[in-house]
Write a structure and sequence with these properties.
Number of helices: 4
Order of helices and strands: HHHH
Number of strands: 0
Structural class: mainly alpha
Amino acid sequence: MASSAAPTGGAATTAASTAANDATTVKACADIKKDIRDNAAKITKAEKIGPPAGHFAVSAQWAAGSVAILAHSIGANEVVTAASEKIQNEMMGLSDAYNKSADAKPSKKALEAAIKELDTACSAA
């Protein structure tokens, strides 16, 4: 006699796992958006230091902000993680630009586009 064993867990386990992932993604979105706002305020404060040394403070803050975003994206769904990685990469690019020059005025258009992408990804989560 052949017995067919029913798989354990099944749809109920998958649904619970998806719900937990969605909750993690929603939390990640909230945390990342807060990181972006907090970082903007800290960048404004660092920019007030001014040249010649102020660019190092701005560079360091962009780097610190990127790390916070990376940390808060852990466990989020793939779309949110990919969008947050773009933001993190853009922030590191800004950090590098400020580190190279006290007179740096790099464009933030790519960062703004990455933030919009995150907003779209988070609204679908």
